[in-house]
Specification:
single chain, about 130 residues, mainly alpha, about 0% strand, binds zinc ion
Length: about 130
């Protein structure tokens, strides 16, 4: 059962960020890497209809870019490692950050959309 008005935006977003149901904070939000569950296993809140669209990808790219580019510029000025090592290292760092951040970003967006009943939270007619 949805607790209308009882949860703050920050709480719902944080619960989504941690991969938990924004309503109860107990049930899992994802059944696969980026696939949200249809309903929370703990409280039954419908979550599968919430579409985060491009928001999580935008946030992931924003954070990854702001972390990697300054680090890359600082390190590359101070080191003289071979180009192939640099290419593998920075590429692997970007892939790792994206894999870590993307599900968390999607969870945060789902939590925020759920809390605000924002666009993307309309139930689809089945
Ligand atoms: Zn729940």
């Amino acid at each position: 059962m949805r607790r209308d008005g009882a949860l703050s935006f920050a709480t719902a977003t944080f619960r989504g960020f941690t991969g938990r149901c924004p309503n109860c904070g107990i049930g899992k939000l994802f059944r696969a890497f980026l696939k949200p569950v249809a309903h929370c296993s703990s409280c039954g809140e419908p979550l599968g209809h919430i579409r985060a669209d491009d928001g999580p990808a935008w946030l992931t790219i924003l954070i990854t870019g702001h972390l990697v580019i300054p680090a890359l510029l600082m390190v590359e000025q101070r080191t003289s490692w071979p180009e192939w090592v640099a290419m593998i290292f920075w590429s692997a760092l970007v892939v790792l950050l994206v894999l870590l951040l993307l599900p968390r970003s999607k969870g945060a967006f789902i939590g925020a959309i759920w809390q605000t009943n924002g666009p993307g939270s309309e139930k689809q007619a089945d």
